[in-house]
Amino acid sequence: MSGLCDSSAVELRRLLAARAISPVELLDACLSRIASTNPAVNAVVTLDEPGARAAAKDAEAAILRGEDRGALHGLPVLIKDTQDTAGLRTTYGSPLLKDHVPAADQASVARLRAAGAIVFGKTNTPEWAAGGNTRNPVFGATGNPFDPMRSAAGSSGGSAVALACDMAPLASGSDTGGSLRNPAGFAGIVGMRPSYGLVASEKRAFGWSNLSTDGPMARNVADTALMLSVMASDDARDPLAYTLPGEPLRGRTERWAPPRPAELGKLRVAFTEDFGFAPTEQAIRRVFRHRVSKLAPLFADCREATPDCSGADDAFAVLRAGLFLAMHGKNYKERPEMLGPNVRTNVEEGLSYTLEDFARAATTQTRIYRAYQSFFSGCDVLISPTITLSPRPWSELYPAEIDGAPTKSYFHWLALAYAVTLPGHPALSLPLGLDEAGLPFGLQIVGPRGGDAIVLSVAASIEAAFAGNPQLCRPIPDLARLAAAPPLSAAPGFLTWE
Predict the structure, then answer these.
(1) Crossing angle for the helix pair 23-41 and 49-64, nearest 10 degrees?
(2) Phi, psi at residue 163, to the nearest 5°?
(3) I want to staple 156 with a disulfide (CB 3.0 to 4.6 A). Which of 173, 246, 258, 416 is the partner?
(4) Residue 436's Cα: distance from chain center in Å?
(5) Please, what's the b/e burial string for 231-242 (b: 16 or more CB within 10 A of its CB; e: otherwise)?
(6) DSSP label at residue 171
(7) Quick one: 485 exposed, middle or buried, by C-beta within 10 A (0-12, 13-18, 19+)?
(8) In this predicted structure, what is the pLDDT of residue 261?
(9) What is the DSSP letter of 386?
(10) E strands along 142-183, which residues?
(11) In whole angstroms, what is the distance from residue 366 CA to residue 381 CA?
(12) Would you please indicate which residues are annotated as catalytic (active-site) residues?
């Protein structure tokens, strides 16, 4: 199966601007792909065909008049179902909001629309984005595009799978403990967690916390940079997106689109299999070591090293629990039966901690941040596997063990991601072939403080270096097989969440 929707966002924008294709034609191609492949994976959960068609016709008329409405003019974009969209159902995967239709876009979505994007649907997520497996009681499970009975990870699993199946050129995501990076790794696409504050948010319950951020997802690095160039912004409602008076620092989007090729031969790369603590399975370690052997000759220097992340498990657990307590404590007390197991676990954990625990966690986070600053004085970029294990069945709420050793919590298996969340450095998951099980392998690329442009440049150069290598380039799912597959909704346990 191939079609117009398989082209990159950058190429589609060129074709649209040249009037070689129309926004209406492109939207039709995306809707057709969704109709043929979405039943097998359940990535897109809500569509607005009438609204999208009207927007596409309006975009087409503007192009014919010679108007340019922005970097995404005429491009169909999918939005994660934890992000508010005006007039389009937004459920957060929760029974509490199964019929919720927001009156207004949240700011990150509004910025996409203002740049000409056509928002035409929502993508699946675990309930309240809690967990690394995309399942909820409203829409059910999302399947991996390479094996629909396996996990798509989370919490931006619907967006990652939709992109892998070419249902849209761009999709939004968000990330606390790897929710942009982990699904990207499992689906074989690109997901980027930007530096905190770069993509401003007016919605974080803890405005001064750097744990959560929105970010771009795409099928290649250039498209990711294009989307980030629109999402990057200032917003006075976000205390981490501060801008000095008279200096529009966050308006300088040319830093992110398009990425400039990095001179890898002048850069020093450090690599780690586990940041010294992440429970990474042996099969992933073997694949990662093979990838390092292929990457090392591209760089000036390649050495095994990691920042000191001691205490990261405890710090992330406490700080994350605090967020969930702030967001869901009231519902937990008044109607706990309407919350799923992951949310309840986090709220209960939050209720068990003391102010002393919080002080310890915040102090540990600060120490890890400072360890990263010292570490990056001796290297330019850090790489690791994106995720600790190969995709497992989505019927598993979370991996209770890795290589026979029990995990500490439902999110412990996401440790490779939150090792980078805590210091707030930018990180990107780049697809780099398949693992030993024949499923996508993601490489996590971590940059220095504020080094979003560096991460994109290095990722683009690695992507280009292996573009012609069938073993190391981005893997593509068998779309014809997915089109012929039975609907995922018929699978046992599809709507079960406990």
Answers:
(1) 150
(2) -65, -45
(3) 173
(4) 23
(5) bbbebeebebbe
(6) E
(7) middle
(8) 86
(9) S
(10) 143-144, 147-151, 170-175
(11) 21
(12) 80, 155, 179
Q: Which two tokens stand for residue 70?
A: 């922005």
| Residue 249 pLDDT level (bands cut at 50, 70, 90) | low
Q: How far apart are CA 195 and CA 428, in angstroms?
A: 11
The identity of residue 412, as a single letter, is H
The predicted pLDDT at position 258 comes to 78
21: amino acid identity, one letter:
I
CA-based torsion, 66, 67, 68, 72: positive or negative: negative
Identify the pLDDT of residue 496: 80
For residues 224 and 429, the answer to whether their CB atoms sit within 8 Å is no
Site of tokens 């959560």: 212
* pLDDT digits 0-9 by tens, 307-323: 999 999 999 999 999 99
Which residue is listed with tokens 């504050």? 197
Residue 245: pLDDT above 80?
no
Residue 451: phi and psi, rounded to 5, are -90, 45
32: left (phi over 0), alpha (psi -120 to 50) or beta: alpha
DSSP 8-class letter at 261: P
Domains annotated for the chain, with CATH where assigned, are 4-490 (3.90.1300.10)
* Three-class secondary structure of residue 431 per DSSP: strand
Write down the pLDDT at residue 7: 98
The pLDDT value recorded for residue 329 is 95
Position 389 confidence tier, pLDDT thresholds 50, 70, 90? very high
The two three-digit tokens of residue 275, written as one number: 């940041």
pLDDT band at residue 151 using 50, 70 and 90 as cut-offs: very high
Q: Enter the pTM of the model.
A: 0.97
| Confidence check: pLDDT of 2 > 80 | no
Give bridge partners of residue 140 from the DSSP assignment: 136
For residues 248 and 2, what is the distance between their CA atoms, to the nearest angstrom?
42
Spatial CA neighbour of 68 closest among 13, 118, 128, 25: 13
Alpha-carbon distance of 227 to 172, in angstroms, equals 9
Could you tell me how many residues make up the chain? 498
Q: What is the CA 392 to chain-centroid distance, rounded?
A: 19
**Shortest CA distance to 317 belongs to which of 387, 411, 398, 402?**
411
Q: What is the pLDDT of residue 451?
A: 94
CB 44 within 8 A of CB 5: no
Give the confidence band of 259 by pLDDT, cuts at 50, 70, 90: confident
Q: Are 181 and 187 in contact (CB under 8 A)?
A: no
Radius of gyration of the chain (CA): 21
Q: How many CA atoms lie within 13 A of 306 on its CB side?
A: 16
